[in-house]
Amino acid sequence: MNQTFNVQGMTCGHCERTVAKALKQVDPQAEVRIDREQGRVEVESTWPRDTLARAIANEGYSVAAA
Fold first, then answer.
1. What CATH number is given to the structural domain containing 40?
2. Which of 23, 31, 34, 36 could form a disulfide with 44 if both were Cys (CB 3.0 to 4.6 A apart)?
3. Cα 7 to chain center, whole Å?
4. Over the stretch 14-63, which tens digit does the pLDDT of each residue have?
């Protein structure tokens, strides 16, 4: 299932890697696409949306539904 999140606070490549790593720790099979300029994170995963959002938020980023 493709899920899209608006993520605020990503300012660099390190931020992108941190978000991707957090999502992969939840679901190692997840496909993660990040558009830092738009503040969008797309995740192809069967895990619940709230679990994925929590993984991003736990890294210090603000997450909202897209």
1. 3.30.70.100
2. 31
3. 7
4. 999 999 999 999 999 999 999 999 999 999 999 999 999 999 999 999 99
